[in-house]
Design a protein that fits this description.
This protein is an all-alpha fold. 63% of the residues lie in helices and 0% in strands. It has 3 helices and no strands. It has helices at residues 2-9, 20-24, 34-72. The protein is elongated and about 70 Å long. It starts with a helix and ends in a 10-residue tail after the last helix.
């Protein structure tokens, strides 16, 4: 919604711009109640923690991969049979 409003008032040129008066007239949707805002905040906190946990798993798997590749090849770069 914001981008649609912004595109409608952009003045074309080498560097498109928009005036602060035009931005003051934009309509923004916000949650009506504090309870709804808190629920949205809680949801995003959950998503952040899920992303962090997933990244932690990825990092751990990359370390396992690195360790396994080091075990697979000896110091001369020759494939070792385990």
């Amino acid at each position: 919604m914001f981008l649609k409003q912004l595109k409608s008032v952009l003045v074309a040129g080498a560097q498109p711009n928009v005036s602060s008066k035009e931005i003051d007239q934009f309509i923004f949707s916000v949650p009506a109640t504090l309870n709804e805002q808190e629920k949205i905040g809680t949801f995003f906190e959950y998503l952040d923690s899920l992303i962090a946990a997933t990244q932690h798993k990825i990092d751990a798997l990359e370390q396992v991969k690195k360790a396994l590749l080091q075990r697979l090849f000896d110091n001369r770069g020759v494939l070792m049979v385990i």
